[in-house]
Amino acid sequence: MNNMISKKELEKMGFKPHQAASIIRQAKFNLVSNGFSYYNNKRLGVVPRQVVEEIIGIPPSQEE
Questions:
Q1: Is 0.85 surpassed by the pTM of this model?
Q2: Domain spans of the chain, in order of start
Q3: CA of 54: how far to CAs of 26, 43, 49, in Å?
Q4: Which residues make beta-bridge pairs with 28?
Q5: How far apart are CA 7 and CA 20, in angstroms?
Q6: Would you say 23 and 55 are in contact if contact means Cβ atoms under 8 Å apart?
Q7: Which is a Pfam family this sequence falls into (predicted)?
Q8: Is the predicted pLDDT of residue 2 greater than 70, yes or no?
Q9: Rounded to an integer, what distance in angstroms lies between the CA atom of residue 24 and that of residue 55?
Q10: Angle 40-44-45 from CA coordinates, rounded to 5°
Q11: What local confidence, expressed as pLDDT, does residue 64 receive?
Q12: Which residues of 27-51 are buried (b: 16+ CB within 10 A; e: fewer)?
């Protein structure tokens, strides 16, 4: 089970590219605000699924 999610996976779920990028950006901002300085990196494109769930309000599907 993969606990991380990327922009491409959000797009597969039906989000537009800009929406997916915004969700990842917001998740990274939230993580940095909570003290996870590792996510303060523009090249990092994956975030924990739990953080995305908090933003969009529903659990992201884990289809693979």
A1: yes
A2: 4-56
A3: 11, 22, 9
A4: none
A5: 5
A6: yes
A7: DUF3173
A8: yes
A9: 10
A10: 125
A11: 46
A12: bbebbeeeeeeebeeeeeebbebeb
